[in-house]
């Protein structure tokens, strides 16, 4: 039990034994040769502690790795952001370069064609040149659309805020599409409510682009009937929503059924009162919220294609692109522009009936107070209407109310009082009543052609009226067919024809020619005649700087045509030496992208030289006589480039340039910019 292999391993137990002997004490020593096995609780506890320790270690390790990965990802994201920003800059630069490289030769093509038109050409050659010009302008328009789409995707499209005449813009758009509408026999008309102010503040170019896109689509897809553009205040439409009981299909411009325009604005928040799209920086009294509708009687849009009509580069079908052409981005761009104008756009279309597109746009009043607005209206009316038309009386013979309303609107813009009648008998009754003197009668061609006997009888009765001078008779026509042209030239009873679409300048010129009043050659408001341009540019010395010889020829030829003395330079360094004061140049057209020294650097150098000389003259260090008695030198420098990126505009102004001319340019663009600086000087 005790053995000889006793070791002090701590596994022995001493027990006291009592055998009843008072003289001896007994003890029992017990020892185990092996340690006892662990208890299960101790085992599981140890294992749990180990697992927890491992888990804590793993979590700590994972946390450290995660922090390192997040830091690495953050660095990668910053690097990707820098790359994306660099790519965005590179994309903008690419657009600028591509635009410049494409538009520069197009400037030469269109410029030379324009100069070719001034030479002695026969009819066939003139037709060839016009066709080439139209093709070139179509290509430039396509380039502009693609660039606009790219700027929209990059978020770089910005709007101007300048004063403009809304009615003049619509007149210009009518002039743009009048030839095509007359060729197709489609009636084209514009009506602007009297409550819409004459002058507004906004971006006229982009507003024109929206309407041009919508009307261009209507012209392409309409073979008969009409295209009708209306402009009202949103308040007018809201006030009339509950009162339009009759369907508009029963009362249209041409008599053809149309898609109900009220359905095109059903989802507009502005009309439903759910929200306001007005800028917060302006009070509501300063804002003009317009609603514009473009209605046509074309082929309509198939129902399956209406959901993707505003998708970029989307055509209704493959045959549409082949038949009518186009890229399919006009509506997409228009929708973006409407959004930038704090507006909404919608449409309604019925296949084989027609389509109506409607959009809203928010502008600012062009006049600060009502008195200024009234005086401006009077001035605009007096500019449009010759004094000979003021106070005249006209009768419009038209049984169709919408068409008569449009005719009344345009004739009243000339200061003529207008009454509408539905037939010839009412004309004779009104004239014979003697209440007012009727100076002219305008008859719709449709009424005139209905019965030639009645028309001839009406002319005879009109000449017999006992009221002094009989009123002058005119026909309002949308197109002239060859048979109608022969009838007009062969018959003595056919009245003068006023061609539609009606617009103030054309109507005034037609009435002046027929009635023998006013200046027959008077240009439209804001238009510069060739004689006035010659008087303005005659003897002016202008420097043109461009590294492209074709562009130099185009610009020089355009200005020499009006009597300017043109000097050409092919580099920025030559321009600096030529514009070193004292010099005798009245203006300078400077190309931006040139080798060695670009237009920006050349302009900055020229401005620095002018500034230093002006300071020397003001301080008296040099005499003003040494510099041709000019105390402040500043030659107008106009940027001349094919780059159409907005940043280029801003950079040209920052470096000291006074204006901007985009290529391809025409003669009118050139002299309009130069005349602005000459007039201010």
From TrEMBL:
CDD domains: HATPase_EvgS-ArcB-TorS-like (cd16922), HisKA (cd00082), REC_hyHK_CKI1_RcsC-like (cd17546). It catalyses: ATP + protein L-histidine = ADP + protein N-phospho-L-histidine. GO terms for cellular component: nucleus. Residues 97-365 form the Histidine kinase domain. The modification 4-aspartylphosphate is found at residue 591. Signal peptide: none annotated. GO terms for molecular function: phosphorelay sensor kinase activity. PANTHER family: HISTIDINE KINASE 3, TWO-COMPONENT HISTIDINE KINASE. This is histidine kinase.
């Amino acid at each position: 039990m005790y053995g000889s292999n006793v070791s002090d391993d701590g596994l022995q137990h001493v027990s006291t034994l009592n055998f009843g002997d008072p003289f001896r004490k007994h003890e029992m020593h017990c020892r185990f040769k092996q340690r006892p096995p662990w208890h299960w609780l101790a085992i599981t506890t140890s294992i749990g502690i180990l697992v927890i320790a491992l888990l804590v270690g793993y979590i700590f390790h994972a946390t450290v790795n995660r922090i390192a990965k997040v830091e690495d990802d953050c660095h990668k994201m910053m690097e990707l952001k820098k790359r994306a920003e660099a790519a965005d800059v590179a994309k903008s630069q690419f657009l600028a370069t591509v635009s410049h490289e494409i538009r520069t030769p197009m400037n030469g093509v269109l410029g030379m064609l324009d100069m070719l038109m001034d030479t002695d050409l026969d009819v066939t050659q003139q037709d060839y040149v016009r066709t080439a010009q139209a093709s070139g302008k179509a290509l430039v328009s396509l380039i502009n659309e693609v660039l606009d789409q790219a700027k929209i995707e990059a978020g770089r499209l910005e709007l101007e805020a300048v004063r403009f005449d809304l009615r003049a813009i619509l007149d210009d758009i009518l002039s743009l599409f009048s030839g095509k509408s007359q060729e197709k026999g489609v009636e084209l008309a514009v009506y602007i409510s009297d409550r819409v102010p004459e002058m507004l503040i906004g971006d006229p170019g982009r507003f024109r682009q929206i309407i041009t896109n919508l009307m261009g689509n209507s012209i392409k897809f309409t073979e008969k009937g009409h295209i009708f553009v209306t402009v009202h205040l949103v308040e007018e439409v809201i006030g009339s929503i509950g009162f339009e009981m009759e369907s508009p299909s029963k009362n249209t411009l041409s008599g053809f059924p149309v898609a109900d325009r009220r359905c095109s604005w059903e989802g507009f928040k502005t009309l439903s009162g759910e929200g306001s799209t007005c800028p917060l920086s302006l009070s509501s009294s300063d804002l003009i919220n317009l609603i514009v509708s473009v209605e046509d009687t074309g082929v309509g849009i198939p129902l399956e294609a209406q959901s993707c009509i505003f998708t970029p580069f989307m055509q209704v079908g493959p045959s549409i692109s082949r038949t009518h052409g186009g890229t399919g981005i006009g509506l997409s761009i228009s929708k973006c522009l409407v959004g930038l104008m704090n507006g909404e756009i919608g449409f309604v279309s019925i296949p084989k009936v027609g389509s109506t597109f409607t959009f809203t746009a928010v502008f600012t009043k062009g006049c600060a107070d009502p008195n200024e607005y009234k005086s401006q209206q009077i001035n605009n009316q007096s500019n449009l209407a010759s004094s000979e038309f003021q106070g005249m009386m006209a009768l419009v013979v038209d049984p169709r109310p919408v068409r008569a309303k449009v005719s009344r609107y345009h004739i009243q813009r000339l200061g003529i009082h207008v009454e509408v009648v539905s037939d010839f008998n009412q004309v004779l009754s009104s004239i014979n009543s003697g209440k007012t003197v009727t100076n002219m009668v305008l008859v719709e061609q449709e009424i005139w052609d209905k019965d030639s006997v009645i028309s001839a009888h009406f002319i005879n009765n009109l000449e017999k009226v006992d009221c002094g001078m009989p009123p002058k008779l005119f026909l309002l026509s949308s197109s002239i067919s060859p048979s109608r042209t022969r009838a007009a030239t062969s018959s003595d009873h056919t009245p003068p024809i006023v061609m539609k679409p009606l617009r103030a300048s054309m109507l005034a010129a037609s009435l002046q020619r027929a009635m023998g009043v006013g200046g027959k050659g008077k240009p439209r408001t804001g238009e510069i005649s060739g004689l006035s341009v010659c008087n303005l540019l005659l003897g002016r010395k202008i420097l043109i700087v461009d590294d492209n010889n074709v562009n130099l020829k185009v610009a020089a030829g355009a200005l020499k045509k009006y009597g300017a003395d043109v000097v050409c330079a092919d580099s920025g360094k030559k321009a600096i030496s030529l514009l070193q004061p004292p010099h005798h140049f009245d203006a300078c057209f400077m190309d931006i992208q040139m080798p060695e020294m670009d237009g920006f650097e050349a302009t900055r150098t020229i401005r620095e030289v002018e500034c230093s000389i002006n300071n020397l003259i003001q301080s008296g260090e040099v005499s003003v006589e040494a510099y041709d008695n000019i105390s402040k030198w500043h030659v107008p420098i106009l940027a001349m480039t094919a780059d159409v990126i907005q940043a280029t505009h801003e950079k040209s102004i920052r470096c000291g340039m006074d204006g901007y001319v985009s290529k391809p340019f025409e003669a009118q663009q050139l002299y309009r910019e130069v005349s602005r600086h000459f007039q201010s000087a």
